[in-house]
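dumping this here before i forget
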Amino acid sequence: MRRFATVAVATLILIGTQNAWGLSASDPKDTPGGLDIASSSIRTVAIAGGAYRTRLAVTTYKAFDLSNGEGSFFWQIDSYGDGAVDYVAYMFGDPNAVPAAPVFCLVKSKNPDVIYKAYVPVTASDTRVVCGLPRHDLKMTKDVRWRVAGRLNDVIDRAPDSGWNG
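structure:
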């Protein structure tokens, strides 16, 4: 009976969390003078009311400020694991934007069968930027792969340096 209860509880936990998952990757400290990427991740997380959000996050080794419009991050996302770029995301600041905001995140579909372009909510700290969008807006499989580049003062750090994360 104890074994059955353990299996039943484990099954219920797996069923309850099957839609929340995440992948992350680290990158070496290799780009002085730019936005040196330390890590990046794509996660699907549960939020209030049973809804789910996909979060794209990038973290750097040193503090940065995108609000002056001088740096940015560019993502390429292979959401089906087939080697093609399905979505791109731009994390950037625009000091002349109306309404003003310290950081923006634009996500666009590159797949002609999936029309999607939206500015999505973003949070930022001195070393991290996170874009969040409704899970159903980014069509993904668990074979998702990505690459991200940080640009500041014409210095570019690519993570990974070649190929894909994921």
